[in-house]
UniProtKB/TrEMBL annotation:
Organism in which the protein naturally occurs: Salinicola acroporae
Protein name as it appears in the record: GGDEF domain-containing protein
Ranges where the EAL domain occurs: 9-259
InterPro entries registered for this protein in UniProt: CBS_dom_sf, Cyclic-di-GMP_PDE-like, EAL_dom, EAL_sf, GGDEF_dom, Nucleotide_cyclase, Rev_trsase/Diguanyl_cyclase
Domain of life: Bacteria
Length: 593
């Protein structure tokens, strides 16, 4: 059939055979970044055909190559072009190269041609990550896993692409330990707006971390997606939010680094958050060029070291070597003779858990305890901006986590277990430091004191707990709820959109839930009799939630939120809906108007 034939060169477009033969390919590079550290981990090489051909889009080009038996030749040409272009950029990050499963298991290659190409250009396999693309029908996943392990033994790292896109990728993941897994863009798109996707992504990240794999989220285009990915524990991101693929990435490096620095500053933990930096033990790292015998000598000089990091020439960790692992290797008969001269990179474990110095304690604790049971007690590597800082011991992590839990319990409200006065103050300081506006709400219960006096503190506590639980259930991803004490709560909202609707919804829910708690006669009368502040009996309406919401612009700064809330409190109590929303600019906020 005519439409099945490849494009003809006579029609002005080069055919696929000519493109492969002439290596008529262009390569663009897209960065893979760590937002928490503000550094660039790697670049992925993306190959394209001639601009004036149907193969300018890589998807039809590789599909046609697979159908015509040209896939191996095409990928070889893409790999050659990518390495040549990469060397010309002068950049030193990791390079991700795509590899289809059928080419990966090709017995004519199995790393030999790629190693020769790297040697020709002065690159080591430790700087290359082979990214296994989607599996083709009929490919034996056992063979793919075996080939991947062979490449890993030569020093290459392995990444699985489009994880979650299909059954084959999950099956292959279960058969090998990839250094990186790339989260399919389907799960990333609008992740912040989809609770189901969030549950999937959290599970994938937890499984990856339990296998000491690092997670790269593809297709990140919006800051909302980025915020959610960081909250869920993704290690790296890739997408248009940071940079589009570029043929000359070194020329756009400066604006990319400025963008990353801004994002990293914005996503640093709030003041008072416990950073993992406190756990760093400054043990010397092993250079990648050391041999096993030299590594053994280092361990003999460090009797208390359980494991040491292996770093490259830029102090970036590439693996970890454990004392027991080394002793098991050298303790065998002829162990020193057989292994002593081997480079340490041949015997190290590449699936080392690396965490950043300023990561919150809770996130690191999840990564450590989520590992497989056999490796749960192993030391982990702590980095600062991607560079080696020191080692972390699990026992110290558990001790610090316990201390933090005790401290949090002391600062939490004993009834609701919500953050108390000091955490609320720190949260307000954090929100004010953000370069965007937010909403600071004071929640108060009208007629609560006479209600307590009339029906007792036990029922009053049940009403307060009902309010705490329902507001907690309404919190968004970046919202904060604290309990000052009694019937006073603080609610901080990052996003002011639909503010009246959100607050009205909370008030309606509280009205329904609190009224269900009061005796039937009080519900029937829509109120109750109790003594007022002058010790006189009178009728009070049922408890109502009133809210004072201060809407602060990006430039607004408030010295005393308490004074402002007190200023508007009478107006909220007089309002028919029990709600006052006040927009504050930098002038009115400072003046307390």
């Amino acid at each position: 059939m005519a439409f099945m034939n490849p494009p003809s060169a006579s029609l002005g477009n080069p055919c696929l055979d000519e493109i492969v033969a002439r290596r008529d390919l262009s390569v663009h590079f897209q960065p893979i970044v760590s937002v928490t550290t503000g550094h660039i981990l790697a670049y992925e090489a993306l190959s394209r055909g001639p601009r004036d051909s149907p193969y300018a889009n890589p998807i039809p080009m590789f599909r046609a190559a697979r159908e015509r038996g040209l896939l191996a030749a095409l990928e070889r040409g893409c790999r050659e072009r990518a390495i040549e272009s990469w060397v010309n950029t002068g950049l030193g990050e990791l390079l991700f190269l795509n590899a289809s499963p059928e080419v990966l298991i090709d017995p004519e290659d199995l790393g030999g041609q790629t190693l020769a190409l790297l040697h020709q250009h002065g690159l080591s396999p430790e700087r290359i990550v082979l990214e296994i693309t989607e599996q083709s029908p009929g490919i034996d996943s056992d063979l793919v896993a075996e080939a991947a392990r062979h490449y890993q033994s030569m020093g290459f790292s392995i990444a699985l692409d489009d994880l979650g896109d299909g059954y084959a990728g999950l099956r292959l993941w279960s058969q090998l330990n990839p250094d990186y897994v790339k989260l399919d863009r389907h799960f990333v798109s609008r992740l912040d707006e989809n609770p189901v996707k969030r549950r999937f992504v959290r599970s994938i990240i937890d499984i990856a971390h339990s296998m000491d794999s690092r997670v790269i989220a593809e297709g990140v285009e919006r800051e909302g997606e980025l915020d959610t990915l960081l909250e869920l524990g993704a290690d790296y991101c890739q997408g248009w939010l940071f940079a589009r693929p570029d043929a000359a990435p070194h020329r756009v490096r400066e604006p990319l680094e400025a963008r990353l620095a801004s994002l990293a500053a914005h996503h640093r933990p709030a003041t008072g958050a416990t950073e993992i930096r406190r756990l760093s033990v400054p043990l010397p790292a092993l250079d990648a060029g050391l041999c096993v015998a030299e590594a053994s000598e280092r361990f003999s000089r460090l009797p208390h070291a359980n494991a040491l990091a292996v770093v490259d020439g830029r102090s970036r960790p590439i693996g970890i070597l454990g004392r027991q692992q080394l002793m098991a290797l050298l303790g065998k008969r002829f162990g020193f003779d057989l292994h002593g001269r081997q480079p340490v990179t041949r015997v190290m474990r590449t699936q080392a858990l690396c965490v950043e110095a300023h990561e919150p304690l809770e996130r690191v604790s999840r990564k450590v305890t989520g590992r497989e049971e056999a490796s749960r007690d192993e030391d982990f590597i702590i980095t600062d901006g991607g560079r080696y800082l020191g080692m972390g011991h699990v026992i110290n992590l558990l001790q610090l986590f316990t201390e933090q839990q005790v401290q949090m319990a002391r600062q939490a409200n004993p009834l609701t277990q919500l953050p108390g006065n000091r955490p609320i103050r720190l949260a307000l300081e954090h929100y004010q430091r953000q370069a965007r506006g937010f909403v600071a709400c004071y929640l108060d219960l009208d007629n609560f004191k006479p209600f307590n006096d009339r029906f007792g503190y036990a029922l009053g506590d049940r009403v307060i707990l009902a309010l705490a639980n329902l507001v907690r259930s309404e919190l968004g991803r970046e919202d904060f709820l604290g309990h000052l004490g009694g019937d006073d709560f603080i609610l901080l909202l990052n996003d002011g959109k639909d503010l009246h609707r959100r607050l009205a919804g909370i008030q309606r829910r509280f009205s329904v839930e609190s009224h269900a708690l009061v005796p039937a006669d009080a519900r029937a009368e829509d109120g109750f009799h109790a003594k007022d502040r002058y010790d006189q009996w009178r009728f009070f309406p049922l408890v109502r939630l009133s809210i004072i919401a201060l809407r602060l612009g990006a430039e607004a700064r408030v010295d005393s939120f308490g004074d402002l809330w007190s200023h508007f409190k009478p107006a909220a109590k007089r309002a028919a809906n029990g709600r006052v929303v006040v927009a504050l600019d930098h002038r009115s906020a400072a003046a307390g108007e």
